[in-house]
Design goal:
Blueprint lengths: L8 E2 L9 H7 L9 H18 L4 E6 L2 H12 L5 E6 L2 H13 L3 E5 L8 H10 L2 E7 L1 E2 L4 E2 L6 H7 L2 E5 L18 E5 L10 E6 L1 H6 L9 H8 L10 H17 L1 H21 L15 E5 L10 H8 L1 E2 L1 E2 L8 E5 L6 H17 L8 H7 L4
Parallel strand pairs: 1-12, 3-4, 3-5, 5-8, 8-9
Antiparallel strand pairs: 2-10, 6-7, 9-10, 11-14, 13-14
Helix pairs in contact: 1-9, 2-9, 3-4, 10-13, 12-13
The protein binds pyridoxal-5'-phosphate.
Length: 378
């Protein structure tokens, strides 16, 4: 079998596989983005966004990848004259730090080694020192396959009065996030992850408090301007029209499945993936207690790097998983199982891994990993 981008078993950590309905939705002739037809689409999207976030609030769609949503939020909500607390335990936490430092000279960073849980006590102690205006944290650290347990931080953030700003790019529609119960003020989602739409849009949820606190940030990503336009089913600048069409269809699919069901299915797939990893004799990269439900990060077997595992999966089995980032390049591979990823994708991937390890004489118990998946199927 050779790699074929159109038929590959596609389990990278986002973009994810896209449903044909969503693909078809994009194939439309050019639309007047200031015309009634497109306004109707924007209105539908607006009405559907609470399905994605599992909460009502001030919600916008930005034409730009997930990072555009982060830049929109940090540039408009990180205070200039008070401290901002950034938490980091992976590549995207470190990037949060970089973005926030463009907009504030008063940043305190609390970090843990990549893949380890965040030091919640240290973060709480920083909050207790006072003068923190915003807290920025990644919910699901895609780079290391670890979900940060924000319930450990939420009460202290609320008590401090700081704005709670969450990068939910690889978590939204994959890992439960009780936005209102935890007092979260901003959540950024990416279209290409749990929502299973094409890459290129950022979805932003803001609380009432966050909306009131918006100050001018970047011009193009000005959240106040986007919100004001959206209230008229419009966008301030020319939107990525085909992506908006795809977004509407992906939101409709999510509503048909139901957010709860998608979260539950993603969780079951994650548990099956972790069991398969055990049965393959491989090790998870992150602290197991916090292993992510949307992406599983696995250490490459000793003496077998990317060339012996991930590249063989791609070349010989037409299965795409993702490599490690930064210092983890060549050391881990990551299996994404969010969005519309499903049991057949996982079965093919695990079968191929069994074969690769078996041929290398490194498979502890042939068939056990497949069995682990099959036993967890509905
Ligand atoms: N934050 C997290 C947690 C991510 O997983 C990603 C992308 O994978 C990003 C930020 C950056 O998003 P984008 O590449 O869509 O700009």
């Amino acid at each position: 079998m050779t790699f074929d981008p159109e038929t590959t078993t596609f389990l990278i950590a986002g973009p994810v596989r896209i449903h044909p309905r969503v693909l078809r939705a994009m194939s439309m002739s050019s639309l007047n983005h200031r015309g009634d037809y497109f306004h109707g689409i924007v209105q539908e999207i607006r009405e559907l966004l609470p399905v994605l976030f599992g909460a009502k609030g001030h919600q916008v769609v930005l034409s730009g990848s997930g990072t555009s949503g982060l830049e929109a939020v940090y540039s408009a909500l990180v205070p200039k004259d008070r401290r901002t607390l950034v938490l980091a335990n992976g590549n995207f936490g470190e990037r949060t730090n970089e973005i926030v430092r463009r907009y504030s000279a008063h940043v305190t960073t609390v970090s843990a080694p990549w893949g380890q849980p965040l030091p919640w006590d240290e973060a709480t102690a920083e909050l207790a020192k006072g003068d923190v205006g915003a807290v920025c944290v990644v919910h699901n650290e895609t780079s290391v396959g670890l979900a940060n347990d924000l319930s450990r931080l939420a009460p202290a953030v609320r008590a401090s009065g700081a704005l709670f700003l969450v990068d939910g790019i690889s978590a939204v529609a994959g890992i439960p996030l009780p936005i209102d119960a935890w007092g979260i003020d901003a959540v950024v989602a990416g279209s290409q992850k749990g929502l299973a739409a094409p890459a290129g849009l950022a979805l932003v949820h803001l609380s009432e408090r966050a909306r009131a606190a918006l100050h001018p940030g970047t011009f193009y990503l000005d959240l106040a301007a986007h919100l004001a336009s959206l209230e008229k089913n419009d966008t301030p600048w020319t939107p990525a029209v085909p992506l908006f069409l795809a977004l509407r269809e992906a939101l409709l699919l999510l509503r048909e499945e139901g957010l709860e069901h998608r979260l539950e299915r993603t969780h079951r797939l994650a548990e099956a993936t972790r069991s398969a990893v055990d049965a393959l004799g491989l090790a998870l990269f992150p602290d197991r207690r916090y292993a992510s439900d949307t992406v599983t990060a696995v250490r490459n077997p000793d003496g077998m790097g990317d060339a012996a595992v991930r590249k063989v999966l791609e070349r010989e089995y037409n299965v795409l998983v993702q490599g490690g980032q930064g210092a983890l390049a060549g050391k881990i591979f990551r299996i994404g199982h969010m969005g519309i990823a499903d049991w057949p994708d996982l079965l093919v991937t695990v079968a191929a891994l069994e074969r690769i390890l078996g041929k290398a004489g490194r498979l502890p118990a042939p068939g056990a990993a497949l069995r682990a998946v099959v036993d967890r199927m509905p």
